[in-house]
Amino acid sequence: MTLAERVLDGDIRAAARLMRDIDDRMKSAVTELKALYPHTGNAYILGLTGPPGAGKSTLVDQIVAAYRKKDLLVGVVAIDPTSPFTGGAILGDRIRMNRHAEDPGVFIRSLATRGALGGMSRSTMDVVNVMDAMGMDVVIVETVGVGQDEVDIVSTAHTTAVVMVPGLGDDIQAIKAGILEIGDVFVVNKADREGAERTARELTTMLEMKHPEPGAWLPHVVRTEGARGVGIEELVEEFEAHRAYLKTSGHLQRLIEERNAKLFADTLRDELFDTVFGAIRDNGRYQEILKGLRERSTDPYSAVEQVLAAHAFS
Amino acid sequence: MAERRLRVLVGKPGLDGHDRGAKIIARAFRDAGFEVIYTGLHQTPEQIVAASIQEDVDLIALSILSGAHNTLLPAVYSNLKEKGAEDIMLMAGGVIPEDDIPGLKAAGIAEIFTPGTSTEVIVDWVRTNVHPRA
Ligand code: B12
Ligand SMILES: Nc1nc2c(ncn2[C@@H]2O[C@H](COP(=O)(O)OP(=O)(O)O)[C@@H](O)[C@H]2O)c(=O)[nH]1
Ligand SMILES: [Mg+2]
């Protein structure tokens, strides 16, 4: 049996292996993904983003428990950064989710960014698709949470939750620009801490000032205590409300279109680069170009034009 | 471009709360370019094996300073076998008396490192003996 057939057959090791092959960019993974693609499109994909330490992994653990109570199958993709110096990584999100390790209805996978920007690895979307094909009803993606340019999650997830904590104070003004646009749900976690009420109020005010078009989704602010499991039911209700809105408003179709377009564009970009670069490296052209650049007899722009014009890659 | 990276699960089985060694090993592995899944304290053998399978690791590296190594380590190995996953290598370290090491190796633990070992020696051993599974 192929890996894809075994995945569809419920084989956990095959699924784990395929995710590895995707992450390691093995050619064979593409064949398997092709076979799985018709079996995708059923999972509800939920993204969690927000600064490191905000409690994303702790919340994921609670959300998993909540969906398991509804008897749904849950996949988790948790992303942590790769060290730019060594290429290694410490992936620690599982620490908060250990109680689900043995539950056959839960599959958790940690991924390293491996140099990708935007809060996810380049493999994330494909790994989500494998979980979708495995029959997961819900797939939760936890992004890295550094910086404010984590917009990739928006085109990956159906619902994006932005997790924040009290005490951001005036900073909230500074960071609002980016995050107000990407969140469908806003979470003020660590509600046991001072200032939670105020942070939630400020956020709500800012969201209301956005003057949405009539009928558009108005994101709500939910207060939670991830560590003690407080506010999780309300949070999951909010996810479900957004999901229902996506369906009834026709917005879901738009999201799916965007997601398809992105997966196509990402794959095209990667494949083109790999093909062209692989070919010129193997036929010696790349070395010639490097020499030309060294001697300043050419420039990067002309070199690329020549490679493309000469179909030097085909 | 296609490239295999070594994936390692570092964890602490049982009720042992000593986590300095495990954290040092996790960092040394990261600095060696490995992807380390750190699962933290208080893991059962079953949890460790389930996580290792989902994460598709090449190596399970466990740290034990509690004295319970003679029960916990063989339990992890037999659980791996039960799940048909004994192709994942298993190593350990911590406060483990020399006299116990031959028995543990016979029980499926590939290698054991005790206090005072430099992390270079440990990383070298992994580089030589563990390879990403094809
Ligand atoms: C620091 C320490 C503590 C700290 C731990 C802090 C922490 N967060 O880790 C505190 C004070 C909390 C503590 C508490 C206790 N401790 Co204490 N503790 C120590 C001590 C002094 C040093 C351990 C340490 O951190 N070493 C530094 C690290 C870097 O070294 P390491 O872990 O050994 O790791 C090295 C190697 O072993 C190896 N290695 C380790 N793990 C792994 C994993 C892999 C995969 C590999 C390849 C290699 C590897 O590589 C590392 C680098 O060389 C040891 C004595 C000793 N000298 O070992 C006692 C010791 C471990 N503790 C002991 C005891 C009994 C306790 C308590 C039960 C005491 C009590 N009665 O309350 C409690 C229990 C705590 C608990 N919940 O489990 C005993 C254990 C006895 C036994 N095994 O038979 C020891 C051996 C002291 C003794 N001689 O009696 N302890
Ligand atoms: N006080 C408090 N701490 C919390 C809460 N939720 C999570 N934490 C703690 O915040 C720390 C970071 O949590 P983690 O989930 O790893 O954050 P992440 O980096 O966003 O994934 C951990 O020590 C958690 O126990 C909460 O509601 N209140
Ligand atoms: Mg996390």
Automatic annotation (TrEMBL), chain A:
<comment type="similarity">
    <text>Belongs to the SIMIBI class G3E GTPase family. ArgK/MeaB subfamily.</text>
</comment>
<dbReference type="InterPro" id="IPR052040">
    <property type="entry name" value="GTPase/Isobutyryl-CoA_mutase"/>
</dbReference>
<keyword id="KW-0342">GTP-binding</keyword>
<feature type="domain" description="AAA+ ATPase">
    <location>
        <begin position="42"/>
        <end position="186"/>
    </location>
</feature>
<dbReference type="Pfam" id="PF03308">
    <property type="entry name" value="MeaB"/>
</dbReference>
<dbReference type="InterPro" id="IPR003593">
    <property type="entry name" value="AAA+_ATPase"/>
</dbReference>
<dbReference type="InterPro" id="IPR005129">
    <property type="entry name" value="GTPase_ArgK"/>
</dbReference>
<protein>
    <submittedName>
        <fullName>GTPase</fullName>
    </submittedName>
</protein>
<dbReference type="GO" id="GO:0003924">
    <property type="term" value="F:GTPase activity"/>
</dbReference>
<keyword id="KW-0547">Nucleotide-binding</keyword>
<keyword id="KW-0143">Chaperone</keyword>
<dbReference type="InterPro" id="IPR027417">
    <property type="entry name" value="P-loop_NTPase"/>
</dbReference>
<dbReference type="GO" id="GO:0005525">
    <property type="term" value="F:GTP binding"/>
</dbReference>
<keyword id="KW-0378">Hydrolase</keyword>
From TrEMBL, chain B:
<dbReference type="GO" id="GO:0046872">
    <property type="term" value="F:metal ion binding"/>
</dbReference>
<feature type="domain" description="B12-binding">
    <location>
        <begin position="5"/>
        <end position="133"/>
    </location>
</feature>
<dbReference type="Pfam" id="PF02310">
    <property type="entry name" value="B12-binding"/>
</dbReference>
<keyword id="KW-0170">Cobalt</keyword>
<keyword id="KW-0479">Metal-binding</keyword>
<keyword id="KW-0846">Cobalamin</keyword>
<protein>
    <submittedName>
        <fullName>Methylmalonyl-CoA mutase</fullName>
    </submittedName>
</protein>
<keyword id="KW-0413">Isomerase</keyword>
<dbReference type="InterPro" id="IPR036724">
    <property type="entry name" value="Cobalamin-bd_sf"/>
</dbReference>
<dbReference type="GO" id="GO:0031419">
    <property type="term" value="F:cobalamin binding"/>
</dbReference>
<dbReference type="GO" id="GO:0016853">
    <property type="term" value="F:isomerase activity"/>
</dbReference>
<dbReference type="InterPro" id="IPR006158">
    <property type="entry name" value="Cobalamin-bd"/>
</dbReference>
<dbReference type="InterPro" id="IPR006159">
    <property type="entry name" value="Acid_CoA_mut_C"/>
</dbReference>
